[in-house]
Write a structure and sequence with these properties.
Length: 123
């Protein structure tokens, strides 16, 4: 199983980025997908998650109305559209796949993780 996150980079405050996470080696539509992030010297934190069908999503309060998670089951890929970026959004962003009965915000409920992509927002 492989999860490859990409699309990070350097952007000015107020800008946008779209992260992608391409998966292989798993039946993508059987997994809910999550995005997490980890800033230097901070714990990994939940950002967003999307159910297997794509019809249900959940977000951390600090990204509501700015970030949108989506998925394309035909392409085995999950996306995170990030708008109105702030310097405090600077972190390594990770995608993850989980197979429990319902999606959660807990890192422990995800079975597979990608390697992360760096997002840096300058002020």
């Amino acid at each position: 199983v492989q999860l490859q996150a990409y699309g990070g980079g350097l952007v000015q405050a107020g800008g946008s980025l779209r992260l992608s996470c391409a998966t292989s080696g798993l039946t993508f539509s059987n997994y809910y997908m999550g995005w997490f992030r980890q800033a230097p010297e901070k714990e990994r934190e939940f950002v967003a998650t999307i159910w297997r069908t794509g019809l249900s999503t959940s977000y951390a309060d600090f990204v509501k109305d700015r970030f949108t998670v989506s998925r394309d089951n035909a392409k085995n890929t999950v996306y995170l559209q990030m708008n109105s970026l702030k310097p405090e959004d600077t972190a390594v962003y990770y995608c993850a796949a989980g197979s429990r009965n319902w999606f959660t915000k807990k890192p422990g409920s995800y079975d597979y993780w990608g390697q992360g992509t760096q997002v840096t927002v300058s002020s």
